[in-house]
Structure formats: C-alpha cells, structure tokens
Amino acid sequence: MTARADPITRAASLAADSLGRLIRRAAQGNAEAVAEVVSLPADLRGLGRPFEVLVDIIKRMDGERRPITEDAVLEEVIILGESGVAHVLLDHATPPTHDPARCAGHVRDFLRAVERDALTAQHRAAVLAGDDGTDLLERLVSLEQDGVHGLKFAGLGDLSELADAPLPWLVDGWLLSGNVTLLAAPGGVGKSMLSLALAASVVHGRALINGMAPLAQGAAVMLSYEDNRTAVAKRLRALQRHHKLDGEGFEADLDKHLHLLDDPRPLAEVDRAGNVRPTAFYTELAATVRRMQPRLVVVDTLRRAGGALDGNAAAHIGELLSLLGDLARESGAAVLVLAHVRKGTGKADAGAENVRGSSAATDEARGAWELRKTADGNLELHITKTNFSGDQNRLHLRVVPVGDAACLESIGGPVANDPRDVEAAVMRWFHANPETVINPNGVIQGKGAAGGLVSAVLASVTWARHRDVEAAVNRLIADKKLNIETTKKANRHKVEALRPVEGVFDELYTEEEGDVPF
Q1: Do the Cβ atoms of 232 and 199 come closer than 8 Å?
Q2: Torsion of CA 9, 11, 15, 17, to 10 degrees
Q3: Which DSSP string do the residues of 238-286 spell out, in sequence order?
C-alpha cells in the first residue's frame, strides 16, 4: 500500500472546511445542522477559536430554545466581544452545506485522528521507558471501537423510494457528479476539444453537443497541462463563432465561471521510500475546489498530472486516481480525466482496456469513454465503462475548422433544439423560486405564477416555445425529477403544486455565490 503525506494536516483542512459549512447551515436554523453542531465536543483540538466560539453559541441558543438565525448568532458574537469570529458566517467562499451529517463526520474523523496520534506517541514513549503501556493500548482500542460504533449506517427501509430517486448526473447518462470519469483517445483526435465543449456547456448552461446537455449551470475548473491559455482561448472562440453564441453572454459566463490553470503542477509524487504522496499543489487545489464546489473539473492529461509517477505501475496510477476520487467526493464535482490509448488499438473494439498504462486507471474510475476516428474521418464517442445504464452509449461527432482553430459538433450540425436545455432551465427556475406554488395545469395555460416560469425559460432558451416548456415539465415529472404535491387549504379545496425532488437537486442545481477564482 502507498502512504498519504501528513494525514493529520489533510484531515484538519477537510474538517475546517466542513465545520465552516456546517456552522453556516446551522446559523440558517436548519434543524439537522443544529443537531450535528450540538453533538460536537467543546474541545475542537486546534481547529481554531472562531469555530469553538460559534459552536458554543449555537449550543447555548439551542439549549435555551431560542430561534437560531444568522442575525441572532451575529448578535451573540457582538455581545461576547468576539467580532473577530464573524468572518466564518460571512465567508461566501464557504457555502452552507446540504449534508450536515457528512460535514460533522469529517470533524469527528479529525478529532479521532488527533487523539489516536497522541495516544500512539504516548504508548511508544512508555514502551521505550520500560512500561508496557497497557492502559494506553486499551484506550487506543477503545477509541477505534468508538469510531466503529459511531458509524452512521444508511437505511434501506424505503427501498422503492430510494431506488426511484434520480442519480446526480451533471450530463445525463454520461457524467456523474461526485465521481471520476476517464476519457481516452489517441493524441490529436479531439479529446481536449470535447472536454472544452463540455466545460463551455456547463459554464454557459446549454448543450453544444447533441445528447450532452448539462443539467446544471455553474463553475468549471480546467487543469490544462498541454495547452496554454492562448490555445484554449482560440478553441473557445471557435466554439463561440460556430455555435453562434456571440449574443448570449458567453464571454461573461466564461469570465465568471471558467477557472483555467494553464501551468498546473503534478498532483502526486514519489517519496524516498517509494510511496506515492499528494503534492503541495494537490493539497492547495483540493482545498480551493472544496470551497468553490464547481460542477466540473477537467484534468488534461492523466500522464502529465502524474508527473514522475510510473504510468505502468498499478500502485502509482491507482493512488493518483484515488486522489482524484477524493477531489470529486469532497467537492461534489464531476471529474473528467483525459488519457491516451495504447498503441495498436485503432482496429480493436472500443473498450476500457485500451487506456494506456496500468489498468488501475479504469479500475478506479467510475465511468470511462473512448473517442476514436471512423473510416470516413469523423469521430465516435463510446461509453466503455459505466455502473449505471443510460439512454445511449454512443455519439457521432466531427471536427470543424473555424478560423485559426477548430471545434467539435454533432453529426447533423450545431445543437439547435436540445430539449434537455429546456429541462435544465425549468429546474434552475424552481431552485431560484423555492416558495412559488406552480400548479401543473397552470403551465399548460401559462397563467399566474406558472406564467413567470414559462417566461423565464423562454428567455433562457431562445429557440423554445410554450409547448416545449410544457413537454419538459411532463418529462421531468415522468422521470421523477419533479413531484406533484397535493395539499388541502382551510376551505378543504385541494391544491396541486410542482416541487423538485428533495435532496439530489439541492446539490445539482445550486449555483453558489462567491466562486473563488484561481
């Protein structure tokens, strides 16, 4: 096995980020977040006085049954003369969590790691001093048992409801949020152009490739090891011109949401003992991405991201993919990693085994694609590994020269009328207007609050018509991404209202403010 560098430091960084997000959620009065904060110990083992002060305030307010709001917590901070801790509540680079239990778990993991480290050091010193250290050893065993008994197991009692819940797709059937997907192709075929088209789709909120409409608009982070910003800019301009994006605020979206690193350093290195360790650059990247919570992270390419790692060594590549998996899980982003295929695979069928280097790359990735040229010079994109079935597993593309660069398009021309654009716009509207009651029949008539929904979607998706919005709402209901809730008024009349499925789409469709640019 390979060792991670400075596990306490890494756990502390994750715990601090998670505790900040947990406190911000608790200060909004969220009952689950408040309960998790109350359950934390008073001694937070060096995570910082601001956290300890705020945790104590929330505990006291909860114990006194006082309403917990951000203003009320800030008032307590001022009364205590602790204005220096207010930045935790006001830091928009640390958005409130939607998973309080997970964030609290990160804090508890850190506290156990600190105690375990201290007990281990004490036991070692006791043994060297001639003491058997039995009591310390028993405390270590007890600590491990406490960690096991403190696990929160996921319930499976309501199997039908759980199985029917939608998966957190960023691109339906292709890119799963919180997971690593591998895109393999020979050099020069177009994998960088495809990844750039996907990143542009996410930051602009519309499909540029048929069948690849993003389900959420937001930030994308690109680690471009092979192309500098000039080359990337030329390809983005080609996309803009070919897909006629000039008048749609495309450049404004790029400026706000696309974060490019065109001279990134390796993510992992080998120490003197032969172990693979995350580099300081990876640690900085992981902390920044956790704060930003981008929708998409692109790593172009796997070989260059690995620096001096041995691409044929399973331990090396497995550890690198594990680091990228941590990045995806901790940030919630879909991580797309570009790789080369083995030589001589051009005539073989597309398959996950074609990726150059150790098979650990595709073993560790949650999904895998292969892009290859066809006999007529066009391109086919194949899904070569997936843990979930989708509506399609192959797309047909071609390279289009535009000025001094090129871009990809679907066979049949630029995307014009992709219905998934309308679905994504509908879901974004519901997230932006959570309290608005929309009657399903109102969408058909376009009256009342439903008229606001229809107007907003038509303004966002310029080709769409009223009937397209109606069809999109019906598909979202059929796919169980929208629910129809029935409530009774005081006069006993029943009222039907559309609501997004709780949980999954809180994460998928939230566009956090205050993205942290590189």
Answers
A1: no
A2: 70
A3: HHHHHTT-TTTTHHHHHHHHEEEESSPPPSEEE-TTS-EEE-HHHHHHH
CA 143 to chain centre: 32
Residue that has been written with the tokens 């152009």 in this structure: 193
Which residue, 191, 192, 202, 197, is CA-closest to 240?
197
Residue 210 contacts residue 195 (beta carbons within 8 Å): no
| Bridge-based pairing state of the strands 296-300 and 175-176 | unpaired
Closest by CA position to 509, among listed 485, 482, 484, 475: 482
Question: Rounded to an integer, what distance in angstroms lies between the CA atom of residue 202 and that of residue 196?
Answer: 10
Show the tokens assigned to 273: 């003992």
CA-wise closest residue to 367 among 165, 179, 170: 179
> pTM for this one?
0.62
Which residue's structure tokens are 């209202």?
497
**Rounded-to-integer distance, Cα 470 and Cα 478, Å:** 12
CB 38 within 8 A of CB 58: yes
* Structure-block tokens of residue 130: 């001639």
Across the range 361-367, mean pLDDT stands at 86
Cα–Cα distance measured from residue 142 to residue 330, given in angstroms and rounded to the nearest whole number:
28
Distance CA 369, CA 382 (A): 5
Go through the domains of the chain in sequence order and give each one's CATH number. 7-149 (1.10.860.10), 177-410 (3.40.50.300), 419-508 (1.10.10.10)
Question: What span, in angstroms and rounded, lies between the C-alpha atoms of 61 and 51?
Answer: 15
The neighbour count for residue 497, using CB atoms within 10 Å, is: 16
* Omega prior to 134 cis, within 30 of 0: no
Least confident residue range of 19-28, 133-142, 267-276: 133-142
Gap between the Cα atoms of 442 and 445, Å rounded: 5
Other C-beta atoms closer than 10 Å to the C-beta of 19 total: 28
Pairwise CA distance, residues 214 & 170, whole Å: 6
Q: Report how far apart, in Å, the C-alpha atoms of 165 and of each of 108, 457, 466, 505 are.
A: 29, 25, 28, 10
How far is residue 191 from each of residues 20, 34, 196, 260, 363, measured CA to CA in Å?
38, 45, 9, 17, 20
pLDDT digits (tens, 9 = 90+) for 472-505: 888 888 888 888 888 765 555 667 888 887 644 4
pLDDT band at 130 (very low <50, low <70, confident <90, very high): confident
Tell me the pLDDT tens digit for each residue of 413-457: 666 567 777 888 888 888 888 778 888 777 776 666 787 888 788
Q: According to the model, what pLDDT value does residue 261 have?
A: 95
